[in-house]
Amino acid sequence: MNTVQKVFKLQGKVQHYAWGGSSYLPQLLGIPNPEGRPFAEFWMGAHDNAPSELEGIALNEYVRKDPGETLGAYTADRFGRLPYLLKILDVKDMLSIQVHPTKRNAELEFAAENKKGVALSAPQRNYKDDNHKPELMLALSEFWLLHGFKPYEDLVRTLSATPELAFLVPLFEKKGYQGLYQAVMEMPQAEVNRVLEPLLKRILPPYKEGELRRNEEHFWAARAALTYDQPGVIDRGIFSIYFFNLLNLHPGEAIFQDAGLPHAYLDGQNVEIMANSDNVLRGGLTPKHVDVPELLKHIRFEPTHARILMEDYGPGRIAVYHTPAPDFELSKISLLKGELLTIRAHSAEIFIVMDGKVGVVEPGAAPFSRKVGEVFIAFHQAKFELNAQADAVVYRASVPSGSL
Predict the structure, then answer these.
(1) Per-residue pLDDT at 1
(2) CB atoms < 10 A from the CB of 230, how many?
(3) Minimal CA–CA distance to 263: which of 277, 284, 236, 291?
Protein backbone atom coordinates (compact mmCIF):
# COMPACT_ATOMS: atom_id res chain seq x y z
CA MET A 1 0.00 0.00 0.00
CA ASN A 2 1.29 3.45 -0.93
CA THR A 3 2.63 4.94 2.32
CA VAL A 4 2.07 8.48 1.01
CA GLN A 5 -1.55 7.88 0.12
CA LYS A 6 -4.11 8.99 2.71
CA VAL A 7 -7.35 8.87 0.68
CA PHE A 8 -8.87 5.51 -0.28
CA LYS A 9 -11.99 4.04 -1.76
CA LEU A 10 -14.10 2.46 0.97
CA GLN A 11 -16.66 -0.35 0.85
CA GLY A 12 -19.46 -0.22 3.41
CA LYS A 13 -21.60 -3.07 4.73
CA VAL A 14 -25.34 -3.65 4.25
CA GLN A 15 -27.48 -4.82 7.17
CA HIS A 16 -30.52 -6.87 6.11
CA TYR A 17 -32.81 -6.21 9.08
CA ALA A 18 -36.43 -7.24 8.55
CA TRP A 19 -37.77 -3.67 8.85
CA GLY A 20 -35.83 -2.39 5.84
CA GLY A 21 -37.16 -1.65 2.38
CA SER A 22 -36.19 -3.68 -0.67
CA SER A 23 -35.54 -0.99 -3.30
CA TYR A 24 -34.01 2.26 -1.96
CA LEU A 25 -30.60 0.98 -0.85
CA PRO A 26 -30.19 -1.49 -3.73
CA GLN A 27 -30.83 1.37 -6.18
CA LEU A 28 -28.49 3.73 -4.31
CA LEU A 29 -25.70 1.15 -4.09
CA GLY A 30 -26.25 -0.43 -7.51
CA ILE A 31 -26.90 -3.88 -6.05
CA PRO A 32 -29.42 -6.18 -7.81
CA ASN A 33 -32.11 -7.45 -5.46
CA PRO A 34 -34.34 -9.75 -7.52
CA GLU A 35 -35.36 -11.76 -4.46
CA GLY A 36 -36.60 -8.61 -2.67
CA ARG A 37 -34.43 -8.98 0.44
CA PRO A 38 -34.78 -6.20 3.03
CA PHE A 39 -31.92 -3.68 2.82
CA ALA A 40 -32.26 -1.75 6.09
CA GLU A 41 -28.93 -0.04 6.78
CA PHE A 42 -25.70 0.73 4.98
CA TRP A 43 -22.84 1.02 7.51
CA MET A 44 -19.72 3.09 6.88
CA GLY A 45 -17.23 2.88 9.71
CA ALA A 46 -15.06 0.66 11.87
CA HIS A 47 -17.54 -0.99 14.22
CA ASP A 48 -16.26 -4.48 15.01
CA ASN A 49 -19.61 -6.08 14.07
CA ALA A 50 -19.54 -4.83 10.48
CA PRO A 51 -16.40 -2.88 9.58
CA SER A 52 -16.03 -1.25 6.19
CA GLU A 53 -13.12 -2.34 3.99
CA LEU A 54 -10.37 -0.53 2.11
CA GLU A 55 -8.24 -2.46 -0.34
CA GLY A 56 -9.46 -5.74 1.18
CA ILE A 57 -8.57 -4.77 4.77
CA ALA A 58 -11.17 -4.29 7.50
CA LEU A 59 -11.19 -0.64 8.56
CA ASN A 60 -11.14 -1.43 12.28
CA GLU A 61 -7.99 -3.51 11.82
CA TYR A 62 -6.40 -0.88 9.59
CA VAL A 63 -6.96 1.81 12.23
CA ARG A 64 -5.70 -0.39 15.08
CA LYS A 65 -2.36 -0.88 13.33
CA ASP A 66 -1.56 2.84 13.56
CA PRO A 67 -4.27 4.91 15.29
CA GLY A 68 -2.05 7.97 15.56
CA GLU A 69 -1.36 8.06 11.84
CA THR A 70 -4.92 7.29 10.73
CA LEU A 71 -6.93 9.20 13.34
CA GLY A 72 -4.48 11.81 14.55
CA ALA A 73 -3.10 12.04 18.07
CA TYR A 74 -6.09 13.83 19.61
CA THR A 75 -8.74 11.40 18.32
CA ALA A 76 -6.59 8.36 19.02
CA ASP A 77 -5.86 9.47 22.60
CA ARG A 78 -9.42 10.54 23.43
CA PHE A 79 -11.41 7.77 21.76
CA GLY A 80 -8.95 4.98 20.97
CA ARG A 81 -10.93 4.14 17.83
CA LEU A 82 -12.77 5.75 14.95
CA PRO A 83 -15.34 7.48 17.15
CA TYR A 84 -18.34 7.54 14.81
CA LEU A 85 -20.43 5.30 12.57
CA LEU A 86 -22.11 6.69 9.44
CA LYS A 87 -25.24 5.02 8.02
CA ILE A 88 -27.92 5.32 5.37
CA LEU A 89 -31.27 3.91 6.55
CA ASP A 90 -34.41 2.86 4.69
CA VAL A 91 -37.22 2.44 7.23
CA LYS A 92 -40.17 0.54 5.73
CA ASP A 93 -41.55 -0.94 8.95
CA MET A 94 -41.49 0.87 12.28
CA LEU A 95 -38.36 0.43 14.38
CA SER A 96 -38.43 -0.43 18.07
CA ILE A 97 -39.07 2.04 20.87
CA GLN A 98 -35.52 2.45 22.11
CA VAL A 99 -33.06 4.33 24.25
CA HIS A 100 -29.26 4.39 24.41
CA PRO A 101 -27.02 4.44 27.50
CA THR A 102 -24.51 7.06 28.57
CA LYS A 103 -20.82 6.33 28.03
CA ARG A 104 -20.23 5.50 31.70
CA ASN A 105 -23.26 3.23 31.95
CA ALA A 106 -22.32 1.47 28.71
CA GLU A 107 -18.87 0.70 30.11
CA LEU A 108 -20.28 -0.67 33.37
CA GLU A 109 -23.09 -2.71 31.82
CA PHE A 110 -20.92 -4.10 29.00
CA ALA A 111 -18.38 -5.31 31.57
CA ALA A 112 -21.17 -6.79 33.72
CA GLU A 113 -22.61 -8.81 30.82
CA ASN A 114 -19.12 -9.99 29.91
CA LYS A 115 -18.57 -11.11 33.50
CA LYS A 116 -21.85 -13.07 33.38
CA GLY A 117 -20.59 -14.84 30.26
CA VAL A 118 -23.35 -13.56 27.97
CA ALA A 119 -22.16 -14.09 24.39
CA LEU A 120 -21.91 -10.97 22.24
CA SER A 121 -24.17 -12.63 19.67
CA ALA A 122 -26.76 -13.81 22.22
CA PRO A 123 -30.26 -12.48 21.39
CA GLN A 124 -30.83 -11.48 25.02
CA ARG A 125 -27.60 -9.44 25.13
CA ASN A 126 -28.29 -5.73 25.81
CA TYR A 127 -24.80 -4.26 25.41
CA LYS A 128 -22.80 -5.04 22.27
CA ASP A 129 -19.92 -2.69 23.16
CA ASP A 130 -18.73 -0.25 25.83
CA ASN A 131 -19.74 2.98 24.08
CA HIS A 132 -22.57 5.48 24.25
CA LYS A 133 -24.68 6.16 21.16
CA PRO A 134 -25.75 9.77 20.72
CA GLU A 135 -27.00 10.14 17.17
CA LEU A 136 -27.99 12.65 14.53
CA MET A 137 -30.45 11.80 11.78
CA LEU A 138 -30.89 13.85 8.62
CA ALA A 139 -33.99 13.26 6.51
CA LEU A 140 -33.44 12.27 2.88
CA SER A 141 -37.18 11.90 2.30
CA GLU A 142 -40.27 12.85 4.27
CA PHE A 143 -39.44 11.11 7.54
CA TRP A 144 -41.62 10.23 10.53
CA LEU A 145 -40.34 9.45 14.02
CA LEU A 146 -41.14 9.45 17.71
CA HIS A 147 -38.84 11.70 19.73
CA GLY A 148 -38.94 12.02 23.53
CA PHE A 149 -41.89 12.56 25.85
CA LYS A 150 -44.44 15.18 24.87
CA PRO A 151 -44.52 18.38 26.91
CA TYR A 152 -46.85 18.10 29.88
CA GLU A 153 -49.88 19.92 28.44
CA ASP A 154 -49.60 18.12 25.10
CA LEU A 155 -49.50 14.71 26.76
CA VAL A 156 -52.50 15.47 28.98
CA ARG A 157 -54.38 16.68 25.89
CA THR A 158 -53.54 13.50 23.93
CA LEU A 159 -54.54 11.15 26.74
CA SER A 160 -57.74 13.06 27.45
CA ALA A 161 -58.71 12.99 23.76
CA THR A 162 -58.25 9.21 23.59
CA PRO A 163 -61.12 7.67 25.61
CA GLU A 164 -59.36 4.34 26.08
CA LEU A 165 -56.31 6.07 27.61
CA ALA A 166 -58.02 8.87 29.55
CA PHE A 167 -57.81 6.82 32.76
CA LEU A 168 -54.02 7.46 32.71
CA VAL A 169 -54.38 11.24 33.17
CA PRO A 170 -54.77 11.16 36.98
CA LEU A 171 -51.79 8.80 37.22
CA PHE A 172 -49.67 11.14 35.10
CA GLU A 173 -50.76 14.20 37.09
CA LYS A 174 -49.84 12.45 40.33
CA LYS A 175 -46.69 10.50 39.44
CA GLY A 176 -45.29 12.28 36.40
CA TYR A 177 -43.50 10.84 33.41
CA GLN A 178 -41.71 8.07 35.28
CA GLY A 179 -44.82 6.89 37.08
CA LEU A 180 -46.88 6.90 33.89
CA TYR A 181 -44.32 5.10 31.73
CA GLN A 182 -43.35 2.58 34.38
CA ALA A 183 -47.02 1.73 34.94
CA VAL A 184 -47.67 0.74 31.32
CA MET A 185 -44.28 -0.90 30.78
CA GLU A 186 -44.72 -3.11 33.88
CA MET A 187 -48.44 -3.71 33.32
CA PRO A 188 -49.35 -7.43 33.10
CA GLN A 189 -49.91 -8.51 29.51
CA ALA A 190 -53.55 -9.34 30.17
CA GLU A 191 -54.11 -5.78 31.35
CA VAL A 192 -52.29 -4.38 28.30
CA ASN A 193 -54.63 -6.41 26.10
CA ARG A 194 -57.71 -5.26 28.06
CA VAL A 195 -56.76 -1.57 27.71
CA LEU A 196 -55.57 -1.53 24.11
CA GLU A 197 -57.99 -3.96 22.46
CA PRO A 198 -60.94 -1.49 22.45
CA LEU A 199 -58.67 1.22 21.06
CA LEU A 200 -57.47 -1.01 18.24
CA LYS A 201 -60.99 -2.16 17.41
CA ARG A 202 -61.90 1.50 16.98
CA ILE A 203 -58.92 2.66 14.91
CA LEU A 204 -58.10 -0.36 12.73
CA PRO A 205 -61.14 -0.09 10.40
CA PRO A 206 -60.51 3.56 9.43
CA TYR A 207 -56.78 2.79 9.06
CA LYS A 208 -57.52 -0.05 6.65
CA GLU A 209 -59.86 2.23 4.71
CA GLY A 210 -57.14 4.87 4.38
CA GLU A 211 -59.06 7.38 6.48
CA LEU A 212 -56.35 8.12 9.05
CA ARG A 213 -53.60 10.68 8.47
CA ARG A 214 -49.94 10.26 9.30
CA ASN A 215 -49.97 13.20 11.69
CA GLU A 216 -52.39 11.26 13.92
CA GLU A 217 -51.13 8.88 16.61
CA HIS A 218 -53.96 6.49 15.67
CA PHE A 219 -52.37 5.95 12.23
CA TRP A 220 -49.11 4.67 13.71
CA ALA A 221 -50.80 2.74 16.53
CA ALA A 222 -52.88 0.85 13.99
CA ARG A 223 -49.85 0.18 11.80
CA ALA A 224 -47.87 -1.01 14.83
CA ALA A 225 -50.65 -3.41 15.83
CA LEU A 226 -50.81 -4.93 12.35
CA THR A 227 -47.02 -5.22 12.23
CA TYR A 228 -46.11 -6.49 15.68
CA ASP A 229 -49.12 -7.89 17.54
CA GLN A 230 -49.13 -11.65 18.10
CA PRO A 231 -52.13 -13.84 18.98
CA GLY A 232 -53.12 -12.92 22.52
CA VAL A 233 -50.31 -10.35 22.82
CA ILE A 234 -50.83 -6.68 21.99
CA ASP A 235 -47.50 -4.85 21.84
CA ARG A 236 -47.21 -2.45 24.80
CA GLY A 237 -45.01 -0.21 22.66
CA ILE A 238 -48.29 1.19 21.30
CA PHE A 239 -48.61 3.27 24.49
CA SER A 240 -45.40 5.09 23.57
CA ILE A 241 -46.89 6.30 20.30
CA TYR A 242 -49.32 8.40 22.35
CA PHE A 243 -46.75 9.46 24.96
CA PHE A 244 -43.95 10.64 22.65
CA ASN A 245 -43.64 13.58 20.24
CA LEU A 246 -44.70 12.56 16.73
CA LEU A 247 -42.44 14.42 14.28
CA ASN A 248 -42.44 14.83 10.52
CA LEU A 249 -39.08 15.92 9.09
CA HIS A 250 -38.63 17.07 5.53
CA PRO A 251 -35.53 16.51 3.36
CA GLY A 252 -32.63 18.57 4.70
CA GLU A 253 -33.99 18.73 8.26
CA ALA A 254 -32.16 16.90 11.04
CA ILE A 255 -32.57 16.09 14.72
CA PHE A 256 -30.17 15.06 17.50
CA GLN A 257 -30.96 12.30 19.99
CA ASP A 258 -28.75 11.99 23.05
CA ALA A 259 -28.35 9.22 25.60
CA GLY A 260 -31.51 8.53 27.59
CA LEU A 261 -33.92 10.10 25.09
CA PRO A 262 -36.57 7.55 24.00
CA HIS A 263 -37.31 7.48 20.29
CA ALA A 264 -38.37 5.34 17.36
CA TYR A 265 -38.11 5.69 13.59
CA LEU A 266 -41.41 5.13 11.80
CA ASP A 267 -41.00 5.62 8.06
CA GLY A 268 -38.63 7.09 5.45
CA GLN A 269 -34.98 7.31 4.47
CA ASN A 270 -32.22 9.16 6.30
CA VAL A 271 -28.52 9.72 6.81
CA GLU A 272 -27.59 8.82 10.37
CA ILE A 273 -24.36 9.44 12.23
CA MET A 274 -23.69 8.27 15.76
CA ALA A 275 -20.98 7.34 18.20
CA ASN A 276 -19.37 4.06 17.18
CA SER A 277 -21.79 1.80 19.04
CA ASP A 278 -24.61 -0.70 18.56
CA ASN A 279 -26.10 -0.47 22.07
CA VAL A 280 -29.90 -0.43 21.94
CA LEU A 281 -32.32 -0.92 24.85
CA ARG A 282 -35.79 -1.69 23.46
CA GLY A 283 -39.26 -0.98 24.82
CA GLY A 284 -41.59 -2.54 22.26
CA LEU A 285 -42.58 -2.50 18.58
CA THR A 286 -40.04 -5.18 17.84
CA PRO A 287 -39.65 -8.96 17.69
CA LYS A 288 -36.19 -8.49 19.25
CA HIS A 289 -35.22 -8.72 22.91
CA VAL A 290 -37.09 -6.28 25.19
CA ASP A 291 -35.67 -5.73 28.68
CA VAL A 292 -38.08 -3.43 30.51
CA PRO A 293 -36.08 -3.08 33.77
CA GLU A 294 -32.93 -2.20 31.81
CA LEU A 295 -34.84 0.29 29.65
CA LEU A 296 -36.31 2.03 32.69
CA LYS A 297 -32.83 2.36 34.25
CA HIS A 298 -31.56 4.52 31.41
CA ILE A 299 -34.52 6.55 30.13
CA ARG A 300 -34.78 10.29 30.80
CA PHE A 301 -38.22 10.93 32.27
CA GLU A 302 -38.66 14.53 31.17
CA PRO A 303 -40.52 16.52 28.53
CA THR A 304 -38.80 17.02 25.19
CA HIS A 305 -39.21 20.12 23.07
CA ALA A 306 -38.03 18.99 19.66
CA ARG A 307 -35.26 21.10 18.10
CA ILE A 308 -35.09 20.68 14.34
CA LEU A 309 -31.64 21.39 12.89
CA MET A 310 -31.39 23.09 9.52
CA GLU A 311 -28.52 23.35 7.07
CA ASP A 312 -25.95 25.88 8.32
CA TYR A 313 -23.88 26.83 5.29
CA GLY A 314 -20.35 28.03 5.77
CA PRO A 315 -17.70 28.87 3.17
CA GLY A 316 -17.19 26.48 0.25
CA ARG A 317 -20.84 25.37 -0.10
CA ILE A 318 -20.56 23.14 2.99
CA ALA A 319 -23.53 22.82 5.36
CA VAL A 320 -22.75 21.62 8.88
CA TYR A 321 -25.25 20.07 11.29
CA HIS A 322 -24.01 21.05 14.75
CA THR A 323 -24.61 18.86 17.83
CA PRO A 324 -23.09 18.69 21.34
CA ALA A 325 -21.59 15.26 20.62
CA PRO A 326 -17.76 15.25 20.68
CA ASP A 327 -17.66 12.02 18.64
CA PHE A 328 -18.98 13.16 15.28
CA GLU A 329 -20.03 15.91 12.92
CA LEU A 330 -22.07 15.60 9.73
CA SER A 331 -21.59 17.96 6.80
CA LYS A 332 -23.23 18.25 3.40
CA ILE A 333 -21.08 19.36 0.47
CA SER A 334 -22.95 20.72 -2.57
CA LEU A 335 -21.00 21.33 -5.78
CA LEU A 336 -21.98 22.40 -9.29
CA LYS A 337 -20.41 20.65 -12.25
CA GLY A 338 -16.83 21.87 -12.70
CA GLU A 339 -16.48 23.27 -9.19
CA LEU A 340 -13.40 22.38 -7.16
CA LEU A 341 -13.11 22.12 -3.38
CA THR A 342 -9.88 21.55 -1.45
CA ILE A 343 -10.30 19.52 1.73
CA ARG A 344 -7.87 18.84 4.55
CA ALA A 345 -8.82 16.03 6.92
CA HIS A 346 -8.15 16.65 10.61
CA SER A 347 -8.89 13.03 11.60
CA ALA A 348 -10.31 10.08 9.69
CA GLU A 349 -13.22 11.36 7.58
CA ILE A 350 -15.73 9.30 5.57
CA PHE A 351 -17.52 10.61 2.47
CA ILE A 352 -20.50 9.18 0.55
CA VAL A 353 -21.71 10.56 -2.77
CA MET A 354 -25.50 10.89 -2.73
CA ASP A 355 -25.93 12.75 -6.01
CA GLY A 356 -23.79 13.22 -9.11
CA LYS A 357 -20.13 12.24 -9.44
CA VAL A 358 -16.85 13.59 -8.08
CA GLY A 359 -13.19 13.14 -8.86
CA VAL A 360 -10.80 12.73 -5.93
CA VAL A 361 -7.30 14.07 -6.53
CA GLU A 362 -4.61 13.62 -3.89
CA PRO A 363 -1.05 14.75 -4.66
CA GLY A 364 1.27 11.79 -5.14
CA ALA A 365 -1.57 9.26 -5.49
CA ALA A 366 -3.62 7.97 -8.40
CA PRO A 367 -6.83 9.99 -8.85
CA PHE A 368 -10.16 8.18 -8.77
CA SER A 369 -13.86 8.94 -9.16
CA ARG A 370 -16.83 8.21 -6.93
CA LYS A 371 -20.43 8.19 -8.13
CA VAL A 372 -23.81 7.90 -6.37
CA GLY A 373 -23.70 5.37 -3.54
CA GLU A 374 -19.91 5.12 -3.50
CA VAL A 375 -17.74 5.91 -0.48
CA PHE A 376 -14.19 7.00 0.30
CA ILE A 377 -12.15 7.77 3.41
CA ALA A 378 -9.48 10.39 4.09
CA PHE A 379 -7.12 9.85 7.01
CA HIS A 380 -5.56 12.42 9.32
CA GLN A 381 -3.77 15.29 7.51
CA ALA A 382 -4.90 14.13 4.08
CA LYS A 383 -5.14 17.02 1.64
CA PHE A 384 -7.04 16.47 -1.57
CA GLU A 385 -9.29 18.10 -4.13
CA LEU A 386 -12.90 17.26 -4.94
CA ASN A 387 -13.73 17.91 -8.59
CA ALA A 388 -17.46 17.86 -9.42
CA GLN A 389 -17.77 15.87 -12.64
CA ALA A 390 -21.53 16.50 -12.44
CA ASP A 391 -23.67 18.48 -10.01
CA ALA A 392 -22.92 16.62 -6.80
CA VAL A 393 -23.99 16.20 -3.18
CA VAL A 394 -21.53 14.52 -0.81
CA TYR A 395 -22.06 13.81 2.88
CA ARG A 396 -19.00 13.99 5.10
CA ALA A 397 -18.56 12.38 8.53
CA SER A 398 -15.79 13.76 10.71
CA VAL A 399 -14.71 14.57 14.25
CA PRO A 400 -15.86 18.11 15.20
CA SER A 401 -13.07 20.57 14.40
CA GLY A 402 -13.70 22.35 17.70
CA SER A 403 -12.68 19.17 19.52
CA LEU A 404 -9.29 18.94 17.83
Answers:
(1) 46
(2) 8
(3) 284
Parts of the chain with a pLDDT under 50: 1-2
Q: N- to C-terminal Cα distance for the chain?
A: 28
The question of whether 282 is a catalytic residue gets the answer yes
β strands within 276-388, DSSP E: 281-282, 312-314, 318-321, 329-335, 340-344, 349-355, 357-361, 368-371, 375-378, 383-388
* SS3 at position 102: coil
Instruction: Please report, for residues 97, 149, 186, 296, the alpha-carbon distance to residue 183 in angstroms, rounded to integers and kept in the order given.
Output: 16, 15, 5, 11
Q: What angle do CA 160, 166, 170 make, to 5 degrees?
A: 95
What is the pLDDT at residue 314? 60
Q: Which pLDDT does position 301 carry in this prediction?
A: 96
Burial of 27 (0-12, 13-18, 19+ CB in 10 A): middle
pLDDT at position 338, please? 95
DSSP 44-59: EE--TTS--EETTEEH
Q: Which amino acid is at 277?
A: S
Catalytic residue among 282, 300, 317, 396: 282
Nearest to 358 by CA among 330, 332, 336, 331: 336
Q: Which amino acid is at 175?
A: K
Question: Residue 138's beta-bridge partner residues?
Answer: 254, 271
Q: How many CB atoms neighbour CB 138 within 10 A?
A: 22
